[in-house]
Write a structure and sequence with these properties.
The chain is of the alpha/beta class and about 550 residues long. Helix content is about 35%, strand content about 20%. It folds into four domains: about 90 residues, no CATH class; about 60 residues; about 170 residues, P-loop containing nucleotide triphosphate hydrolases (Rossmann fold), CATH 3.40.50.300; about 180 residues, Rossmann fold (3-Layer(aba) Sandwich). The longest helix has 14 residues.
């Protein structure tokens, strides 16, 4: 009998032996329910979390399947306490339900139900839950205040009793939307994602960058067939959504409106930015009327892992409307994954990055970490700097310019993105490379012109700030050089690699380089940033600049 690549420990951590022949297979199976915590060279550490198990349960996986995965790949017997905890945690999902009374005097009223009176008694007596419920109807049923559906779900997740929401959704104003599969077809995984979402009513679809999340959004809109509000990260993304919807659906220009800092159009399909929805005037959210401008039948949250905190509060009040979240990663750096789970909905569909790559729908990618030495003069400045300044000094090391030039020279015929965090560093880099620069200060029309110039091949090198992290379609980029980032942000690392994953017409492998300053916090943050991609099966080759 072959010993497996996993060691399951009683504290619910799981160690994966990277060099084992079954490691890749085990990694894919683990990603369904566990989160990668550390990914050094030889042993990767995963943690089994409640939220991971509940998401797996909502996506249709059972505790028996998960225990079978652990038993199949474990080097030693799975501790009985871990097996019991997994079963107990997964069985908590759905033992409470939120429903509507179907008939009688109270028809249409929202209620919290359970077949187990003890559970109901426990949650109804909790300080933060009691005000959300009315007087008990019977031993198994409590009425729910009409406004409290979202907050109740949040509080139940916090108490460890995630409710299954069976209360249904308002159909919204009908609006016919059809997919126009003219010269293209939905891929099998995209179709499966739409079906899983529609069957569940609301929830999150997790697909890698470049795998066609916009098409899944369009498919969801066609399945629901109602007026739709689409929330996106920025105006560039809004215009890309508009362009894709015109190309992929029966919608016309007159049916799609943009609601952003520049334009205020409300149409049957309206694309709004998170920024406009959360902007305030005299302390009030000035554009909340958009949420009631139509009787929306569907709300699409693009890049749901970036949902600003104020939008959670607004979403808590939108629980009667169908919601779909689209993302490449459920990782949130603010730790609010539980709010995504309770307010947008649980994970309905998740496709492993390497599986989509194997099918040829995203480009294969090689990841490299290039380590440089901090020059002596900068090392002294770094040594005496305050903690909040140390990362900036290390990440902005001047030696990174020379290394970036050498990497670009290795890829003479490829399109290269140079991505960073600090504007002065990017300005200096753009000047050194004689390349155009896009930052948050670049006017929208100029941004679109430069992106188009890059797509067409007129400009082979483009230097960009974090404005290019999200929802920017640059299919011909095949090399990215990351010179600095948002500290240890795993989601940013995933998004930046995602800029390269659109399939290449020549079938080429994409190259993702991170230039890291050795023996500084830049190196420490880089290890954290790489965790999510390591979980997806991407290995980093670490080399010295010398």
């Amino acid at each position: 009998m072959t010993l497996g690549p996993l060691i399951v420990q009683s504290d619910q951590t799981v160690l994966l032996e990277v060099a084992h022949p079954d490691a890749e297979e085990a990694r894919h199976a683990l990603a369904v329910f566990a989160e990668l915590e550390r990914a050094p060279e030889h042993i990767h550490t995963y943690r089994i979390t409640r939220l991971g198990l509940w998401n797996a349960r909502a996506a249709g996986h059972t505790d028996a399947e998960i225990l079978d995965t652990l038993n199949r790949y474990a080097k030693f017997p799975v501790p009985s306490g871990v097996a019991g905890e997994i079963s107990d945690t997964m069985q908590r999902y759905g033992r409470l339900t939120i429903e509507r009374i179907a008939d009688g005097d109270r028809a249409g009223e929202l209620v919290l139900r359970s077949d187990e009176p003890m559970i109901l008694r426990e949650v109804s007596s909790a300080k933060k839950i009691a005000p959300l419920l009315g007087n008990r109807i019977d031993e198994l049923t409590f009425p729910v205040e009409a406004w409290a559906r979202g907050e109740l779900k949040q509080q139940l997740v916090a108490r460890g009793w995630p409710a299954e929401d069976l209360a249904g959704y308002t159909p919204g104003d009908p609006h016919d939307i059809e997919l126009a599969e003219d010269g293209w077809q939905m891929r099998d995984y995209q179709r499966a994602a739409v079906e899983k979402f529609h069957a569940g009513g609301s929830g999150v679809v997790v697909l890698p960058c470049g795998a066609g999340k916009t098409i899944v959004g369009a498919g969801a809109m066609a399945a629901v067939g109602a007026k739709t509000l689409i929330l996106v990260t920025n105006a560039v993304s809004a215009r890309q959504w508009r362009s894709e919807l015109l190309r992929r659906t029966s919608l016309t220009e007159d049916e799609i409106g943009e609601y952003s800092g520049q334009v205020k159009e409300v149409r049957p399909v309206t694309i709004a930015t998170y920024q406009i929805l959360t902007s305030r005037r005299k302390g009030e959210y000035a554009h909340l009327s958009l949420l009631d401008a139509h009787d929306w039948g569907l709300i699409v949250y693009d890049e749901v892992h970036l949902l600003p905190a104020p939008v959670f509060k607004l979403t808590a009040e939108l629980q009667a409307r169908r919601r779909i979240g689209l993302t490449a990663t459920l990782v949130r750096e603010d730790g609010r994954e539980g709010d995504v789970f309770s307010l947008i909905g649980p994970k309905r569909y998740d496709a492993a990055w390497k599986d989509i790559e194997a099918q040829g729908f995203i480009a294969p990618a090689a990841c490299f970490e290039i380590r440089v030495e901090l020059p002596e003069s900068e090392r002294l400045e770094y040594a005496v700097a305050e903690d909040q300044d140390r990362y900036r000094i290390a990440a902005s090391a001047t030696v990174k310019q020379r290394v970036a030039r050498e990497i670009i020279a290795k890829h003479p015929d490829e399109s290269v993105l140079v991505i960073g965090q600090y504007i002065d560093q990017l300005e200096s880099m753009a000047e050194a490379l004689n390349a155009p620069l896009i930052t948050g200060q670049t006017p929208m029309d100029e941004r679109e012109r430069l992106f188009e110039s890059f797509r067409s091949g007129e400009d082979r090198i483009l230097v960009v700030s974090k404005v290019a992290n999200f929802s920017v379609d640059l299919p011909d980029a095949s090399v990215a050089i990351q010179i600095s980032g948002s500290f240890g942000s795993r989601q940013e690392e995933a998004q930046r690699l995602g800029r390269l994953l659109r399939p290449k017409s020549n079938g080429a492998t994409a190259s993702f380089y991170t230039i890291v300053t050795r023996d500084t916090v830049d190196q420490d943050f880089a290890q954290n940033r790489q965790r999510f991609l390591a979980e997806q099966g991407y290995a980093y080759t670490i080399t010295n600049a010398e």
